[in-house]
Each structure stands twice: as structure tokens, then as C-alpha cells.
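In response to reviewer comment 3 from the previous cycle, which asked for concrete evidence that the modeling workflow produces usable outputs, we include below a single protein chain processed end to end. The sequence was submitted unchanged, and the resulting C-alpha cells are shown without manual editing.
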Amino acid sequence: MARRFRYDVALVSALKDLEEDIMEGLRIRGLDDSTCTSGFTVVIKESCDGMGDVSEKHGSGPAVPEKAVRFSFTIMSISVRAEDEEDAVTIFQEQKPNSELSCRPLCLMFVDESDHETLTAILGPVVAERKAMKESRLILSVGGLLRSFRFFFRGTGYDEKMVREMEGLEASGSTYVCTLCDSTRSEASHNMVLHSITRSHTENLERYEIWRTNPFSESADELRDRVKGVSAKPFMETQPTLD
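The workflow returned the following C-alpha cells.
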């Protein structure tokens, strides 16, 4: 069971809520709002996490799974590049980016956050909508004029467990300790410096195909060593950034 908004509709609602802040930001920066109709850039922080045990203990309602997961987003900043300027100017910055008040739920679902298949099924359309918005612009009336917005999505609100689940990696007890590189626990304990970020969504997809097809007819241990912690088909690209 899940309830969600369409991603573009939710972003329109969030931007309309910030309409006064956008216009105030233009005024403070001394920008003529009639010339700033395009070149708006919005940075979105995505978050997804389990909400723990939410089962109904006493009521007579329908039985629900015991776990819930919430996918949400926060508008971190809005900037604009005026027609005759080279550099973008920030006109809105979220002052409390980790607050519940700035966090906007997009999807609520009854599912265990370790249930990779169900998460994939529910969040797959969200990922498709996000990908479509990465490659397009949103035209929205703000301050009485139509303005053009582009969106950049940063997946910095996922904890390690969710990153592993979305990228199809083994869970937290894995021999491969890092979600950004191929180090094992023993390698990481001997070398805390020379780690490089080698994980990518595309590479994890390729490794899953190797895991699934076993093209070299290897044993389970050899195959596992080759894919280095990839255990399922990844469904969401997460960026190697720290919040």
C-alpha cells in the first residue's frame, strides 16, 4: 500500500509555496523581475528512510505491514542567471534544510526498507519522473509572469542502508563495507587513506548482469568476489556526496 504525489505536481506546489520568497529574493538582489523569466535553477535534496514500526496494536482496522518508508524532498536553493550576466545569483536558500518543516513528503508506503523488490516497484515511477524532469524545464507562473525552472537532484538524504538498497548492494553486514568503493572490511581496516570512489549506477547494473548470468561459469564465491557486493538490480542512482 502506498500513497504518493506526482513528482512534477509536488514540485509545482513547493515552488508556489515559495513564491513570495522568490520575489523577495529578486528584490533584495536588485534584479528586475520582468527580465528574470528564464535561467532559474532549483537544487533538490531527496531523502528516503524507514519510519520504524507503525503497526496498529489495538484498533479494529485492517492489518498492515509493520514497517513504513517515507520518500521526501527539500528545496535547498533557487538561483537565477540574468540575461546579461555570466554568474548565477542565489535568491533563495533553505535556512533549516534538515528540519521537518522544510521536508516535503512525496511518497508514503507500507513496506520494510529492506524489501528491495517492493521498493523497486513503488519507487520505479518516481525515478522515471525524476529522470524526465532532469532533461526538461518547468514553465510556471511566479509573480504574475511565466518563468522557466531547471531542477538538479541531490540524493544526500539517504542513510547507508537506503543507499545499499537502492543501488542493489548487500546489506550492512556485507564483507564489502563501503557503498562508494570496492574495499572489504579487512582492506579498509589496514588502509584508511587510499580509497577512491568507484561505484556508479551503470557499473552496478553491469555487475548485476554478471551476477545473474555468470558468463564465466564461476563458483558462488568467485562470482561474489567479482561483483563485489552487488546482490540485486539497482533501481535508483545515488550520488557519492556527503550531507
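DSSP finds seven helices and seven strands in the chain. We consider this sufficient to address the reviewer's concern, and the full set will be provided in the supplementary archive.
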